[in-house]
Amino acid sequence: KGSAKTLRSAYEANDLTSFERTLENKQNRILADPFIMSYVSPLRRRMREQVLLNLVKPYRRIRLEFVARELKLDEAEVEGLLVNMILDKRIDGKIDQIRGFLSLGGESKSVKAKNYDALTQWSSTLKSLSNSLSSKIYL
């Protein structure tokens, strides 16, 4: 009963260290119970995702190595979490596997949006010019 309460308070406080320590404490026998583990696995994943979101929030670019160290996971696990979160649109970012970075925010997206807006404006200006010239030719 005490271990469930500790897990809950760690989850509510986004305290991943305390959460993992409680899970791995052999006296609690949480990891040994398959029924409880069926619920703990999604909860653990959700907890890691919440901590990950809070960790990367202030950055535009962050090293995967740093994130892995903070979450006490290996880089492959962090990358897997990030890929799923990006695909679920919970994080707006791109993973640079070669350099080992997560780039956050839609900087390239905003550049594309600006280009699209400029092209739309240019297109409407050309259409207006074309209509103006056409009307003068037929007069």
Name the features.
single chain; 139 residues; mainly alpha; 3-stranded antiparallel beta sheet; 8% strand; elongated
Overall form: elongated
Q: What are the secondary-structure elements, in order, as H or E?
A: HHHEHHEEH
Please compute the radius of gyration using only Cα atoms: 25 Å
Strand order of the largest sheet: 1-3-2
Q: Average the pLDDT over all residues and give the rounded result.
A: 85
- CA(first)-CA(last) distance: 90 Å
Number of helices: 6
Provide a quick synopsis of the model.
The protein is mainly α and 139 residues long.
Task: Walk me through what this model shows.
This protein is mainly α and 139 residues long. The protein has helices at residues 2-12, 16-24, 34-56, 64-71, 75-87, 107-137; strands spanning 61-63, 93-96, 101-104. Strands 1-3-2 form a three-stranded antiparallel beta sheet. A hairpin with a 4-residue loop joins strand 2 (93-96) and strand 3 (101-104). Helix 1 (2-12) packs antiparallel against helix 2 (16-24) and helix 4 crosses helix 5 (75-87). The longest helix is centred in the C-terminal third of the chain and has 31 residues, at 107-137. The protein starts with a helix and ends with a helix. The model has no long low-confidence stretch (mean pLDDT 85).
